[in-house]
Backbone:
């Protein structure tokens, strides 16, 4: 967790507790919004990781295909001669 997020978390916690004390419906709604924002961050990170790994796999496949195309074909080995 970055330093900013830690300090923001420390600042938000008392405010959220105060909001839930003063206005419970508003506090619940705010808690839900913050929870959904966190879930969204995790989902975006997972998608980015998946996309990066897919791109790397495609690049690796293309490199192998280029190497295979660049190699001269070997004649078949003779057997029994």
Residues:
């Amino acid at each position: 967790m970055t330093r900013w997020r830690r300090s923001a978390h420390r600042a938000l916690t008392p405010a959220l507790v105060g909001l839930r004390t003063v206005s419970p419906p508003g506090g619940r709604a705010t808690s839900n919004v913050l929870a959904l924002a966190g879930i969204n961050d995790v989902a975006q990170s997972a998608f980015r990781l998946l996309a990066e790994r897919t791109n790397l796999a495609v690049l690796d496949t293309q490199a192998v295909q280029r190497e295979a195309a660049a190699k001269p074909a070997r004649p078949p080995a003779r057997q029994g001669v």
